[in-house]
Design a protein that fits this description.
Largest sheet: 7 strands, parallel
Structural class: alpha/beta
Radius of gyration: 18 Å
Distance between the termini: 47 Å
Helix content: 40-55%
């Protein structure tokens, strides 16, 4: 028996990184998963690997309301219902506040914040039709503390925590639980773009750059290492299954202790 037997869950940003690992783990736990992404090649390949009975890929630009409508329709057509959502898709831009162009700020808002909003709005009617369900939003530990050069990113992630709390209050009596994950440094293509090829797939790792990154996180993270996407996937599983049946409206930090403070270097 899997923890998600019989569940149908939409995962965004599912072609790689945290979303890919969430999709893999959910399928292993008995769910049927709809993989949403704009990286069609990797997304289609993952769906094929997982099998047609367990996974479907849909092209999903989370900032477009019509894409969300099509994704929900595809999910219900393929699997008969939707009773879970993991809002994982996001982008990261580093820039000083005074040097951040408005269009860059708005791009991050559209994907991270508007994307999460549209996802909850689009999927909630399907969750109600299924008799309840779960929504897991991906925020960030920067939603709860500061980090230089991340004005746009931190703003959107703080907004996600706020929307999570409001949605949880509005939907609790309808059998829908809404929670947020707040990852710290996780080893994904978003946090380490040097590992990403032009087509969105993996490329050969620059070992010197990777070693430098590992050294940095070894100093600032109390647990001494960067997190792995599989670890975030396990938190997403917990929040999507009955193990968390009395939890809603909460941000869960998963950061190796970074938010607790930084050791003297």
């Amino acid at each position: 028996m899997g923890k998600l037997d019989g569940r149908v869950i939409v995962v965004t940003g599912a072609a790689r990184g945290q979303g890919e690992q969430e999709a893999r783990l959910f399928v292993a736990e008995g769910a049927r998963v709809v993989l949403g992404d704009v990286l069609d090649g990797p997304g289609e390949a993952l769906a094929e690997e997982l099998g047609a009975e367990q996974a479907r890929y849909v092209h999903l630009d989370v900032s477009r309301e019509e894409d969300w409508a099509a994704a929900v329709a595809s999910a219900t057509s393929a699997f008969g219902k939707v009773d879970g959502l993991v809002n994982n898709a996001g982008i990261l831009r580093f820039n000083e506040l005074v040097n951040t162009p408005l269009d860059e700020f708005q791009q991050v808002v559209q994907v991270n914040q508007v994307g999460a909003f549209l996802g909850m709005k689009a999927v909630t009617p399907a969750l109600l039709a299924a008799g309840g369900g779960t929504i897991v939003n991906t925020a960030s530990y920067t939603a709860l503390t500061g980090m230089t050069f991340l004005t746009s990113y931190a703003a959107t992630k703080a907004a996600i925590v706020g929307m999570t709390r409001v949605a949880a209050m509005e939907l609790a009596d309808k059998g829908i639980r809404v929670n947020a994950m707040c990852p710290g440094a996780i080893d994904t293509p978003m946090t380490n773009p040097d590992r990403v090829a032009a087509d969105g797939g993996p490329k050969a790792v620059d070992e010197a750059a990777a070693a430098g990154l590992d050294e940095f996180y070894g100093k600032v993270v109390p647990m001494g290492r960067i997190g792995q996407p599989e670890e975030v996937a396990r938190l997403a599983l917990f929040l999507s299954c009955e193990d968390s049946s009395y939890i809603t409206g909460q941000p869960f930090v998963i950061d190796g202790g970074w938010l607790a403070g930084v050791s003297v270097l």
